[in-house]
Design brief:
Structural class: alpha/beta
Number of strands: 10
Strand content: 15-25%
Radius of gyration: 20 Å
Largest sheet: 5 strands, mixed
Order of helices and strands: EEEHHEHEHEEEHHHHEHEHH
Helix content: 25-40%
Number of helices: 11
Distance between the termini: 31 Å
């Protein structure tokens, strides 16, 4: 399909029910016409984390009014929409099924093209929502469930350079925050606690220092910090530990990203030296500042989505759907919901970071 056109995006991979309308212009640039996110934080807070069954039930109740609100705020109706895009994975499969099924119903009832979007691809291109970020670029995708370095040449064209071999950075933030007795969601709470803390007060392990490549590991850091947290009660000590944890995570992200930058720069011309960080952890100011400084020192431009598009949202899903629709990449009503869905399928098959039956990030 040839732009300009509007795409309705739906996102239900975890604990946010979201809908958005995005316009793709004739020049290939996207603009967000509306973006609505209904958070479930209050529903999950008593449990200290996301409960899949609670999330799925909330999505069932919220998906229709949230989609209706997104259309209303955009000032359009379904008659103006050229396609409907929905997250089809990875994520909590019961939650994913809600948004995908709703999109299928709209597609069938209104004769709209359906685009089943990889949630990670939405994050991967989210910096293009309100900025001119041409392909290709080097991406650090870092969130609660994912931590990987990728070369992004376009939608459907991502090459994995490195991934976490155990926990994701956002997962480490959340679980360490829980060890410190901080409320859910833990990552933002830990960032607030860390303000003014002494990053050198508590020594923490540095993972994979002798290992080649661009993979990450946060399980050792998580365990060490949790043990230290058991003996910390003074508020100053808690603040210093939080600051040390935040610094350690930012340090490892920067160390592995620097390796990826060297490999990327060796294969691309100077004008293609673009670095993007996306995902929920990209909202952390310490992490973002460390990575921006790293990009500058290595001759890369730096881009990140606006904070409101770092965490889960439907605008990024609508954008991925719009770019796929423009390329003729549409899906049938037999599109399946997937709990795991690697962006680089070839790398996942040839060199899996996780094997069946083993817990870990959805890489």
């Amino acid at each position: 399909m040839t732009p300009p056109f509007l795409v309705l995006g739906l996102e239900t991979s975890c604990d946010e029910t979201a809908a958005a309308v995005v316009r793709l212009g004739v020049d290939g640039r996207a603009s967000v016409v509306s973006s609505v996110v209904a958070s479930q934080i209050a529903a999950h807070a008593p449990y200290g984390g996301v409960v899949p069954e609670v999330a799925a039930r909330a999505h069932v109740e919220l998906i229709e009014p949230v989609a209706r609100q997104a259309l209303a705020e955009a000032g359009v109706t379904l008659d103006d929409i050229s396609g409907v895009a929905a997250t089809a994975g990875p994520g909590l499969v019961g939650a994913v099924m809600v948004g995908l099924s709703f999109a299928k119903a709209l597609s069938l009832a209104r004769g709209l093209p359906l685009i089943a979007v990889n949630h990670l691809e939405g994050h991967a291109i989210s910096a293009r929502l309100e900025a001119d970020v041409p392909y290709p670029f080097l991406l650090l995708l870092v969130s609660g469930g994912h931590c990987q370095l990728l070369e992004v040449a376009g939608v459907g064209a991502c090459t994995r350079l490195g991934s976490t071999i155990d926990d994701a950075a956002g997962e480490a933030f959340d679980k360490i925050a829980k060890s410190l007795g901080l409320p859910y969601p833990g990552g933002p709470a830990l960032e607030r606690l860390a303000e003014g803390g002494d990053i050198d007060r508590f020594p923490l392990p540095r993972a994979l220092l002798g290992r080649d490549g661009c993979d990450f590991s946060f399980s050792g850091l998580k365990t060490a910090a949790a043990r230290l947290a058991e003996g910390v009660t003074d508020q100053t000590d808690r603040r210093d530990l939080a600051a040390a944890v935040q610094n350690a995570i930012a340090r490892q992200l920067a160390e592995r990203t620097q390796r990826a930058m060297a490999a990327y720069a060796a294969q691309h011309s100077v004008q293609h030296k673009r670095f993007v960080v996306a995902g929920g952890v990209a909202a952390n100011r310490t992490v973002r500042a460390r990575l921006e400084a790293l990009a500058t020192s290595n001759g890369f431009s730096f881009a990140a989505p606006p904070l409101k598009y770092c965490t889960d949202n439907a605008a990024m899903i609508a954008l991925a759907g719009a770019e796929r629709l423009a390329a003729g990449m549409i899906d049938g009503l037999d599109a399946v919901a997937r709990p795991r869905w690697p962006l680089d399928q070839a790398a996942a098959l040839a060199n899996p970071t996780h094997v069946p039956g083993r817990k870990g990030a959805k890489a």
